[in-house]
From TrEMBL:
Protein name: M14 family metallocarboxypeptidase
Span of the signal peptide: 1-28
Record-annotated Peptidase M14 domain positions: 46-285
Zinc is among the record's keywords: yes
Record keywords: Hydrolase, Metalloprotease, Protease, Signal, Zinc
UniProt xrefs under Pfam families: Peptidase_M14 (PF00246)
SUPFAM superfamilies on file: Zn-dependent exopeptidases
Alphabetical list of Gene3D superfamilies matching this protein: Zn peptidases
Similarity comment text for this entry: Belongs to the peptidase M14 family.
Swiss-Prot/TrEMBL cofactor(s): Zn(2+)
PANTHER family tied to this protein: PROTEASE FAMILY M14 CARBOXYPEPTIDASE A,B (PTHR11705), SLL0236 PROTEIN (PTHR11705:SF143)
UniProt source species: Streptomyces cellulosae
Amino acid sequence: MKRRAALLTATALTGLAATLVTAPSAGAHDTAAPPRTGFELTHGARWTTQPEEQRLLETVDRASGRVHVTRIGTTAQDRPLRLVRIGAARTPNKVLLVCSQHGNEPSGREACLTTVRDLAYAKDRETKRFLDRTTLLVVPTANPDGRAADTRGNSDGVDINRDHVALKTAEGRALAAVIRDERPDVIYDLHEYGATPPYYDKDLFDLWPRNLNTHPGVHDVAQSLSEDHVRPAAGAAGYSTGTYGIWTDPVTGDPIRQTAGDGQERILRNLSGIKHAVGLLIESRVDPLTDAEKADEALNNRRRVDSHLAALNGLIRFSSERRGTVEAVTAKARAAGYADRGAVYLGGADNETPEPSEVLADPPCGYRLTAGQYAEVGDELALHGVRVQKTGNGVFVPLRQSLRALVPLLLDGRATYHLAEGEAITSCR
């Protein structure tokens, strides 16, 4: 199938008949032409610099009444972490894009910056209607220090996408606070991967939350987002797709072995599901696909970014067309913890049966932390949004709360990434 480059306008994102603003409109603060990224200005010869990103965000913040840019944190090297809000001030439906958690995976960041700019300036009726009903939240560079150094980890060498339980990094803490405060219904996490031909060799791979503590309704809608929306949108633009972490035979399509994509809770894709958001990890291929891409790095770079933009088309359509379904399943999942029923899983995945020792078939009603333990982990519990009850000497953390399944993952000594080993309380009045 012949590839079609993704249009760098709102049309590429919504599939609607959108155009960019070229004249003053109601509520506009600036009549300048829409800004372009450094990537666009060089036709993909280099990535957008951080000063260029800052100027672009400042420009769209001034120019569009539907955009608001805030600082949500500061890295160890004093770089800002920014959140862009696009849409109405208050909407029941929120979609969060987390871009380039790994600093050496820049194509997702470029797609996010283009998305921000295009939706800021689009003036067509359908895009306006979409943004009247949905708030798009974007963290354009989730790892600024790593992007500056072109490294996977942050300036301390920590993989941010393995820090969504411990919250030891400024980047992980900032994202946790956004998820706690905004309660996004969808969390879409943009990455890149290195191919392993011929078995692991698509333009794009994606994967939903596999963690077994994900509410079934959220899990199923996340899988549908992948298989019924994101992959078809990418395929319509000429890009091949597959399930992340699974090697498949290029002839038969049969799975050969799993190389990644387990259910560990410290990865954002899985923690999204545990926190009741429809999560999806999306990975574009770094390696050149053709001799032309091998000879022209800019051509390869454009394919990496354009494939992400094509997939984003599917996400935006999904968010528009299935808004009611998403709101219903996330609301049901958030309420389910208060019933305090059902097993909690310390291991396993939707494609991996947990060991009996990894299943809390009859979980305790909560965990008691001493004053000393709470002093060590209280900030992290608060960032996660876990509710605690003060006691005479410490705190009690009940399971009867929205984040019921997260509590044992944080406080049970048998959980792989627990923050503290709380005292399990089996009888509560």
